[in-house]
Amino acid sequence: DPDSGDNGLLLYSLVGGQTNEFDINEHTGQIFTVSVAGQAGTFNLEVQAADQGTRRLTAWTTVTVIVDSSSSSNIVMLVLNQKINVVERNSAEVQRVLEDKLAWNVYVVNIYSKELERKARSSTDETEVWIIAFDEAHQEVPAEDVKRKLREQKADIEQELEKVFSASVSAAVGEAPAAAASPELVAAIVLGVLLAGTCIAFLAYVLLDLKRKRKYGKQDLVKKVEIMEGIENPWAVDKNGSLKSLQKPEHMNN
Question: Which parts of the sequence belong to the Cadherin domain (predicted)?
Fold first, then answer.
C-alpha cells in the first residue's frame, strides 16, 4: 500500500480455509503451521490485508499450502549462541541472512530451546533454528548439501548475524532433529506394553493356580489313600498302637 500513516499500515488475517491448522503474523503476513502433524496434502487459505484508515480498505487472496510428509528428512538444525526470545524476535532477519548466504529459499520450520519446558525461557544462550531450503525449481535441497554450504559460509553468516543481534554470534550445524513418532505408533506401543503386562499377569495367575491345585491335590490324594487303606483293612492302629475295629459298634447299628 503506497499510502502513508494509518492508510498505509496493513494488517493481515486468515478469513477462510483451515484456520485451525495455520496462523498468520498480522504485521508481516507470514503464515505459520499450528497443527498439521500426521497430515499431508493441499490446504487453501483465504488471506485478507486491510489498511487502518478511516475508510478501511481490504483485499483478499488465496494462498495454497502443500504439506509434504517427507520434508522432515531435509530439516537442518543451526545452533546459535543466543537466547530464544532474542532469536524469535529477529527470526525474519535470521532467515534473510541465511537466504542471502546460501542462495536458496530458506524457511524457518521451528525455533527451539531446552528452556521451553521451564519458566525462564531467556536463561540459556543456546537456541536451535530448524530450517529447510528450496532451490529455484521449488525442490527441497538435500540436508547434506545445506549443511555443507552452512559450514562453507559459516564466517560470513556469523558476521551478518552479529549485525542482527548486536553481539558476538556462533553458528554451528547441529544434528538433524529426529522425526517424532506418529500418534498411531505411540498408541501401538502403549497397547503393546499393556497387552504384554496383561499376558504376564495372566500367566503368573495360571501358574500360581496350578501350583495351589497341585499342593491341595496331593493332600487330598494322601487322605483318600489313608481312607481306602482303612476300608480295606477293618482293623486299624489307634494312636496308642493297639488295633481298633473300623466296624460300627452294635449299639450304633441299633
Answer: 1-77
pTM of the model: 0.47
> Smallest Cα–Cα separation from 170: which of 159, 157, 156, 158?
158
User: For 22-39, what is each residue's pLDDT tens digit?
Assistant: 888 888 888 887 776 667
CB-neighbour burial class of residue 206 (10 A; exposed 0-12, middle 13-18, buried 19+):
exposed
Q: Give me the amino acid identity at 23.
A: D
Range of the domain at 78: 72-174
60 by Cβ neighbours in 10 Å (0-12 / 13-18 / 19+) ranks as exposed
For the record, the C-alpha cell of 20 comes out as: 485451525
Cα(166)–Cα(159) distance, rounded to whole angstroms? 10
Domain annotation covers residue 10: yes
- Cβ count within 10 A of residue 149: 19
